[in-house]
Write a structure and sequence with these properties.
The protein is α/β, with parallel strands linked by helices and 296 residues long. It has nine helices and eleven strands. The longest helix has 16 residues. It is globular and about 50 Å long. Adenosine-5'-triphosphate binds next to helix 1. One of its GO terms (molecular function) is ATP binding.
Length: 296
C-alpha cells in the first residue's frame, strides 16, 4: 500500500487573492519531502489542499497508488491546536481516533486496537499514558500523542504542518525518529518546516514555495543561496493588491517535481466552487493507478 501525489497547476485563492500559484510537480511514492518558504508563502494552504481542507481555485491534485488497496488514505496533522479542551478526553481515546476509518467513530476499542495503541505510545515515548487526560499534558506530550494517533491511523501518506513548533530538542528528535520510521516503511511523508538545517539533515526532497513554486527536487539542489534568496525576495513583492502571476520558476535538472509555464491569469476570474473529489481507476502510464482526484 503506497501512494504518490501529483499536482497539476494547483492554484488556491482566498477571497480572490491567490495564496498559491500554478504549482505543478509530483511527490513520488515513498518520498520524504519538506515544504519550506517564508511566512505567508502558502505552505499550509498547499498542504491543506492536499488534505482536502482547502478548496482549489484551479488545477488538480491526483493521488496515485501502486497497489490495489485504498491508496488515497491520508493522515493529516494540522498545526498544534487539534484538541478540543472542552472535552476531557483520555490519551487512549485520542490515539484510538486514528482507527476511526477502520472501526467507525462509535467503534469499540478492541483488545487488538489496544495493543496497537500501546505500541504507538511506546514508540513516541509515552508508554503508560493511556488514562491521562490530554488537557493535562504538556505541548510536547500532546504532540507525541498526536503522532501516536498517526501511527495507529497507518496511512500510506502523511502530511504534517509544522510538527515541531514549540517542541524541545528531545521531543523533536524522538518525533523525527518516527518520521524516519515511516519513510523506511515506504510511506509518502510531506512536512511543512522552517528549520533549514533539519531539512538538510533529514529530508531528501524539498519543495521551496513563495506563493509560486521556486524549486522542487533533491534538498541539496534546492537549498542553495540563489533559490533561497529568490524565495525571500518574492516575499517583499507580495502585495495583497497584486494578484497576478509573474516570474517563471527556475528549472532544476533531475528534480522529482516538474516545472510549469506560468500563465498571465487574473485570479478573480477563477472563483472556487468547492473541492470536488473524483474517484478514478485511471492508470497514469507507469503502472500506477489514480485513486482520487481533487479539482475545483
Ligand atoms: N483563511 C484564510 N483567509 C484569508 N487568507 C488566508 C487564510 N489563510 C491563509 N491566508 C493567506 O494566505 C497566504 C498564505 O498563508 P499560509 O498560512 O498558507 O502561509 P504559510 O506559508 O503556511 O505561512 P507561515 O509560515 O507563516 O505559517 C497568506 O497571505 C495568508 O494571509
Amino acid at each position: 500500500m503506497s501512494c504518490g501525489i501529483e499536482l497539476e497547476d494547483v492554484t488556491l485563492a482566498y477571497r480572490g487573492h491567490p495564496a498559491v500559484h500554478h504549482v505543478s510537480g509530483r511527490f513520488d511514492t515513498g518520498s520524504l519531502t519538506a515544504i519550506i518558504g517564508p511566512n505567508g508563502a502558502g505552505k499550509s494552504t498547499l498542504l491543506g489542499a492536499m488534505a482536502g481542507t482547502r478548496k482549489l481555485t484551479q488545477g488538480s491534485i491526483r493521488f496515485v497508488s501502486t497497489s490495489d488497496g485504498p491508496g488515497e488514505d491520508l493522515a493529516y496533522l494540522a498545526q498544534l491546536s487539534g484538541i478540543n479542551h472542552d472535552f476531557p478526553l483520555r490519551v487512549l481515546e485520542v490515539v484510538a481516533m486514528g482507527a476511526w476509518n477502520r472501526i467507525g467513530s462509535f467503534g469499540e476499542v478492541t483488545a487488538e486496537l489496544e495493543i496497537q495503541i500501546d505500541a504507538a505510545l511506546t514508540q513516541v515515548g509515552l508508554q503508560g499514558f493511556e488514562d491521562r487526560l490530554v488537557d493535562e499534558l504538556s505541548v510536547g506530550q500532546l504532540q507525541r500523542v498526536l503522532f501516536a494517533r498517526l501511527i495507529v491511523q497507518d496511512a500510506p501518506m502523511i502530511l504534517l504542518d509544522e510538527p515541531f513548533n514549540a517542541l524541545d530538542a528531545q521531543t523533536t528528535q524522538d518525533l523525527l525518529g518516527v518520521i524516519n520510521h515511516w519513510h523506511r516503511d515506504g510511506r509518502t511523508v510531506i512536512a511543512v518546516l522552517h528549520d533549514l538545517q533539519m531539512v538538510r539533515d533529514f529530508f531528501p526532497n524539498t519543495l521551496l514555495l513563495a506563493r509560486e513554486l521556486i524549486a522542487w527536487g533533491p534538498t541539496r539542489e534546492v537549498l542553495v543561496p540563489a533559490l533561497l534568496q529568490r524565495a525571500q525576495g518574492s516575499r517583499l513583492a507580495w502585495q495583497e493588491a497584486a494578484p497576478w502571476c509573474r516570474e517563471p520558476q527556475i528549472p532544476l535538472d533531475a528534480v522529482s517535481g516538474s516545472t510549469h509555464d506560468h500563465h498571465q491569469h487574473d485570479h478573480h476570474s477563477h472563483h472556487s466552487h468547492g473541492a470536488q473529489l473524483v474517484e478514478s481507476g485511471e492508470g497514469n502510464g507507469d503502472g500506477q493507478r489514480v485513486t482520487k482526484v481533487i479539482a475545483p
